[in-house]
Amino acid sequence: VLSAVGLAGWLPLLMWHLLHCHLVSVNGVGLHAVRQWSNVPFLTVPLARAHGKSFAHRSELRQAKRIVVKLGSAVVTRGDECGLALGRLASIVEQVAMLQNQGREMMIVTSGAVAFGKQRLRHEILLSQSVRQALHSGQNQLKDMSLPVLEARACAAAGQSGLMALYEAMFTQYSTCTAQILVTNLDFHDDQKRRNLNSTLHELLRMNIVPIINTNDAVVPPPEPNSDLQGVNVISIKDNDSLAARLAVEMRADLLIALSDVEGLYDSPPGTDDAKLLDTFYPGDQQSITYGTKSRVGIGGMEAKVKAALWALQGGTSVVIANGTHPKVTGHVITDIVEGKKVGTFFSEVKPAGPTVEQQTDMARTAGRTLASLLPEQRSEIIYALADLLTEKREEILSANKKDLEFAINSGRMPASMLKRLSLSPSKLNSLAIGLRQIAVSSQDSVGRVLRRTRVANNLDLEQITVPIGVLLVIFESRPDCLPQVSALAIASGNALLLKGGKEAANTNRILHELAQEALSVHNVRDAIQLVSTREEVEDLCRLEKMIDLIIPRGSSQLVRDIQRAAKGIPVLGHSEGICHVYVDHEASIDKVLKIVRDSKCDYPAACNAMETLLVHRDVLRTPLFDQIIDMLRTEQVKIHAGPRFASYLTFSPSEVKSLRTEYGDLECCIEVVDSMQEAVDHIHKYGSSHTDVIITENEETAEQFLQLVDSACVFWNASSRFADGYRFGLGAEVGISTARIHARGPVGLEGLLTTKWVLRGDGQTAADFSEQGSMKFLHENLPVAQPLTGQRTSN
């Protein structure tokens, strides 16, 4: 072990032994119990698991305790193959050290000695040649110098010490000790050597040291072209892929992460038009893929990686192949893999019973295009059928919902507001059915509606028509009633739909999805709506930018914010906060104020359109109206927080608000004082979320100014903020409320799920016909939208 660590590392190793012995003598059995969980006594997350079977799902990778990280030549070396990619190495070392400090046992199988040595030897040769030329010629101007071909084993011998010194220096920044292990194929064929290697590695791991392993390229013979993986018990060490696999199985590692210069395993050579990255690879899929060329450096290639990965998988070690060459693009690839995120290709022996989420998306898009091509009456029939099923299958739906409620109540982790959202009732189902029938009526002229018609030139007519957006991903929490609403809107707008519901409503969501597919079967488009029931994390779904066209989150503000951060390549329709204001003007009616403020705050405090801040004109203070407002809020058990200015008016004020930009989502609100309507508008613009804001006044001029000035999705005069709702607006239902500035704003119903395309009907015209030398002129004549195209063409 001292040989592996090196003389420079003997002092910290000795200190570790002294500390370890001291702890044993003081804590006795106590320390032993801790070390069953980890090599680090302060670790609180249990990581131990029985080895022998690989993980079946990505989410289980969080349990991995012993991890081998294999760094391919393309990861470690620079693009010119002379020297190391220091930025990438620094990121990798940081991640490995972080996982090591969590109590995991990390091992690195690294390439790079040849590249590092090549850089050193080239430098020495150039220096030697320049000195020799200067001595012989006596001139300052040097001739062109050619470099000899450098032998790989010599480069490895020159580079190994420098490579290890670099690793040691980097890991020292994280108070992590490293040790160097050089091996050859013979070390695995000799039983005694193999036992020695195994013993050394176990001892290093026991002492919380990161072993850094490499093939001894200074003495190793060239790889045999036909040498291959031989059975389950034997593997030829011909490259670092096979070395990493052999070590992972020998050391009973839980996970092998193989980093290369490709994102993972593709179903065809990367770069080809139809190549698709495989999220998960199963041993039985071997025959369905073809391999491309090897990377610019290294001797393995993807075929060697796959064979090594399958060998390790059979030995009980899970494997992920991922890209380690673009840290700015791939992020913290190692820690992301350990956290179970969808990075690279995960090798699993357990094939899921149903389709993958990628397959579901493909199925939904194909069926969605057929749905969009149906006649409006046919799409309406599907929605009517779904509305009828909600009534006919009421008992089955309520029975499933009861199971979800009982589980949620027994778990004791769900707040009352979420339980209310989770609960379904006969009246809720009736309201849903009524809303769906409204959508069926309004969908008659949605898809394919002509918005604009222009005669560009003679026999050249242009139309702008409505079309579906494509594939929608709707993510919702504990709101099963959202599923039929969104399904109906997707059907009416001809969109394919992926649904990801919260696990707390799993039973209810399952039966509602079955009913939606039963309704879709009326016109053979059953697959247009898919329920994602696999273990996909929301963040992983947000990365499917090539498959999903729009994400619509329905849930807490935290959920929306998380999705907006994760979905970098996919538009998100929604709002992260619902900080709604009600402004009480000095010319407001007492009855209207009490009624509107009570409804805005107390009707459904958890809703995004509930009042969070009550703005009061200064002249209303110390009036009977203000006293009645306070009494009403106290009667409704609303906790009041005082804004800074309101607090200054009071001798004994309520608790002062921590932030004027707070969404309480409960029976709480902030009260603040303003001097004028304009000041109320300024406050709303500074602290609001552009959701819904209300003015209560009898002065029409003041009200109209407020309605014009406030830049929010919904602005009301003498009406409750709770009216900001698709059903109440007569949209039938909504997929959410958007505070975005483009596409859709406010409650988003059917219209918000449509986009447009331009259709041009010509007769052989070209752009050159309209140039200065051309024979045609633009007309750009606006035509009536209702005018049929038949008979419009005229001769030149």
TrEMBL record:
<keyword id="KW-0808">Transferase</keyword>
<comment type="pathway">
    <text>Amino-acid biosynthesis; L-proline biosynthesis; L-glutamate 5-semialdehyde from L-glutamate: step 1/2.</text>
</comment>
<keyword id="KW-0547">Nucleotide-binding</keyword>
<dbReference type="GO" id="GO:0005759">
    <property type="term" value="C:mitochondrial matrix"/>
</dbReference>
<dbReference type="InterPro" id="IPR041744">
    <property type="entry name" value="G5K_ProBA"/>
</dbReference>
<dbReference type="Pfam" id="PF00696">
    <property type="entry name" value="AA_kinase"/>
</dbReference>
<keyword id="KW-0067">ATP-binding</keyword>
<dbReference type="Pfam" id="PF00171">
    <property type="entry name" value="Aldedh"/>
</dbReference>
<feature type="domain" description="Aldehyde dehydrogenase">
    <location>
        <begin position="356"/>
        <end position="623"/>
    </location>
</feature>
<comment type="similarity">
    <text>In the C-terminal section; belongs to the gamma-glutamyl phosphate reductase family.</text>
</comment>
<dbReference type="InterPro" id="IPR036393">
    <property type="entry name" value="AceGlu_kinase-like_sf"/>
</dbReference>
<dbReference type="InterPro" id="IPR000965">
    <property type="entry name" value="GPR_dom"/>
</dbReference>
<comment type="pathway">
    <text>Amino-acid biosynthesis; L-proline biosynthesis; L-glutamate 5-semialdehyde from L-glutamate: step 2/2.</text>
</comment>
<keyword id="KW-0560">Oxidoreductase</keyword>
<dbReference type="InterPro" id="IPR005715">
    <property type="entry name" value="Glu_5kinase/COase_Synthase"/>
</dbReference>
<dbReference type="GO" id="GO:0004349">
    <property type="term" value="F:glutamate 5-kinase activity"/>
</dbReference>
<dbReference type="InterPro" id="IPR001057">
    <property type="entry name" value="Glu/AcGlu_kinase"/>
</dbReference>
<dbReference type="InterPro" id="IPR016162">
    <property type="entry name" value="Ald_DH_N"/>
</dbReference>
<comment type="similarity">
    <text>In the N-terminal section; belongs to the glutamate 5-kinase family.</text>
</comment>
<dbReference type="InterPro" id="IPR016163">
    <property type="entry name" value="Ald_DH_C"/>
</dbReference>
<keyword id="KW-0732">Signal</keyword>
<dbReference type="GO" id="GO:0005524">
    <property type="term" value="F:ATP binding"/>
</dbReference>
<dbReference type="InterPro" id="IPR015590">
    <property type="entry name" value="Aldehyde_DH_dom"/>
</dbReference>
<comment type="function">
    <text>Bifunctional enzyme that converts glutamate to glutamate 5-semialdehyde, an intermediate in the biosynthesis of proline, ornithine and arginine.</text>
</comment>
<keyword id="KW-0028">Amino-acid biosynthesis</keyword>
<dbReference type="InterPro" id="IPR005766">
    <property type="entry name" value="P5_carboxy_syn"/>
</dbReference>
<feature type="signal peptide">
    <location>
        <begin position="1"/>
        <end position="21"/>
    </location>
</feature>
<comment type="subunit">
    <text>Can form homodimers/multimers.</text>
</comment>
<keyword id="KW-0511">Multifunctional enzyme</keyword>
<dbReference type="InterPro" id="IPR001048">
    <property type="entry name" value="Asp/Glu/Uridylate_kinase"/>
</dbReference>
<dbReference type="InterPro" id="IPR016161">
    <property type="entry name" value="Ald_DH/histidinol_DH"/>
</dbReference>
<protein>
    <recommendedName>
        <fullName>Delta-1-pyrroline-5-carboxylate synthase</fullName>
        <ecNumber>2.7.2.11</ecNumber>
        <ecNumber>1.2.1.41</ecNumber>
    </recommendedName>
</protein>
<dbReference type="GO" id="GO:0004350">
    <property type="term" value="F:glutamate-5-semialdehyde dehydrogenase activity"/>
</dbReference>
<dbReference type="InterPro" id="IPR019797">
    <property type="entry name" value="Glutamate_5-kinase_CS"/>
</dbReference>
<keyword id="KW-0496">Mitochondrion</keyword>
<keyword id="KW-0521">NADP</keyword>
<feature type="domain" description="Aspartate/glutamate/uridylate kinase">
    <location>
        <begin position="65"/>
        <end position="323"/>
    </location>
</feature>
<dbReference type="GO" id="GO:0055129">
    <property type="term" value="P:L-proline biosynthetic process"/>
</dbReference>
<keyword id="KW-0641">Proline biosynthesis</keyword>
<keyword id="KW-0418">Kinase</keyword>
<dbReference type="InterPro" id="IPR020593">
    <property type="entry name" value="G-glutamylP_reductase_CS"/>
</dbReference>
